[in-house]
Amino acid sequence: MILQFILAAMLTLVPAPRVVVHIDLGAAEKYYRDGKYDLALGEYEAAIAQKNPANDESDNPRVYYNAGNCAFRLQRYPLAALYYHRSLLRDPRDAQARFNLRLTERKLAMAPPPAESVVETVLRAFDAASPGQLLFYTAAVESAALALIVLFRKRRGAIGSGFVLLIIAGATGYGYIHKTMSVPPPRALVMAPEIKVYSEPRDDLPVLVTLKTGEVLDVLESTDRWLRVRSADRGGYGERGGWTPSAGVGMIY
User: Fold this and answer.
1) CA distances (Å), 67 to each of 6, 44, 71, 161, in order?
2) Second-level CATH architecture of 187-251
3) Rounded to the nearest 5°, which phi and psi values hold at 48?
4) Model confidence over 88-115: pLDDT tens digits?
């Protein structure tokens, strides 16, 4: 009971969201309400293209989400998937963007992802948290654990609960170290109906694997016309990855 109370209290101690500078997206929203999705998409894409530090909201996940909705309405499903991925990159906890992405993937005839295990859910929660949040959670859980062990040591179960919290604090601390010290590779989305992957940046070589629209790739290296990519969900070209023309993919980040 004490452990549940402390965990529930911690969930309310989330750091305040970052304040962004507002930019006017009224025209895009009006076009969307009027069913002029192509014009609305153009407005959202213009806002995204600004990338001006003084207009911080151009990088707001909702702008990418709304652009994805416009593309979906226009039946431009690869573009919709790209914008939903970009939205989730900025806010991995957005359940509606994740739902819309799954709906878009069904439109692209992609196989649904396997059911998520408890461990995978926890790992995704760690991945969604910023380094600052992980550090905050680590300190909060560790403090709660020590309080249980020292102040409530005579209560049955308090010491055991305290050690459980210390294990959780260790896990969040590891997540903080991993997130601050490791740099994940850029990711891209297959936008063409299919792309071919080669062992070298040449299209006169045997094809290692063919990838379909909607597949997410790690980008390991790039040239003017080629990307060296790797897909965690597909075999056939190993950890080294393979080369594909950059024209067939869109960068998520």
Assistant:
1) 40, 6, 6, 46
2) Roll (2.30)
3) -65, -40
4) 998 988 999 999 999 999 999 876 655 5
Q: Which of 75, 66, 64, 63 is nearest to 252 (CA)?
A: 64
In the predicted model, is pLDDT for residue 23 greater than 50? Answer: yes
| Predicted TM-score of the model (pTM) | 0.69
Domain locations along the chain: 26-107, 117-181, 187-251
More confident call, 213 vs 22: 213
Residue 179 has a CB neighbour count (10 Å cut-off) of 19
Cα–Cα distance list, 5 to 14, 15, 65, 68, 161 (Å) = 16, 19, 35, 39, 12
What pLDDT is recorded for position 109?
86
Q: What is the pLDDT of residue 64?
A: 96
Percentage of residues in the chain with pLDDT exceeding 70?
63
**How would residue 25 be classed by pLDDT, with cut points 50, 70 and 90?**
confident
Q: Which residue has the tokens 């609960």?
A: 161
φ, ψ at 11 (rounded to 5°): -65, -20
Residue type, 41: L
- Bridge partners of 217? 188
Q: Say if CB 209 and CB 195 are below 8 A apart.
A: no
Contact 237, 230 (CB under 8 A): yes
Q: Which CATH superfamily is domain 26-107 in?
A: Tetratricopeptide repeat domain (1.25.40.10)
Write the CA distances from 23 to 57, 139, 214, integer angstroms. Answer: 6, 36, 31
What residues contact residue 139 under an 8 Å CB cut-off, 6+ apart?
A: none
